[in-house]
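Quick note —
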Amino acid sequence: MKKTLLFLLIVALFSTACEGPQKDERESGPVSLEESIRLQEAKVYDADQNKLSRQDASVLVNLYEKFANKNPEDTLAPEYLFRASDITMNLRRPGQTIRLFDRILTDYPDFEKAPAVLFLKAFVYEDQMQDFDNAKKFYELFLEKYPDDDFADDAEISLKNLGKSPEELIMEFEKKN
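Predicted structure written out below.
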């Protein structure tokens, strides 16, 4: 009898230990998308880490996009897409970054950061894709739509120096001085 009771106790403990987290999740309900984002942001933006985990960052980008897909009317949707584009730009994924910028500009044209999005779109074409024709097109569009924006001077300088190598820029600077 004692052996049977001990065996049942061990089986009960083992089965509880094996499914502990799953059981807790079921009792408290699944983690919300917003909570998943918050947890993943804490993981990605942990100041103690000296490097960005590409995998963790990619998970966060996917969560941001999932939120925007499920909640397109939420005021956080364009902000999350902007954060996703910031991550993909820093991960040097220009195609994905441009796609996110286009989505923000199309779906949320009144988003407060739309001017920055358009400027950064031109910048990604210039810096990461070396597609100077599109960079020029979007810098010019930026200046047309937002001539008084803080980035207007940067856009003008970028247009003047579009496609020039660092050596060419140094030579021009030395000529002026």
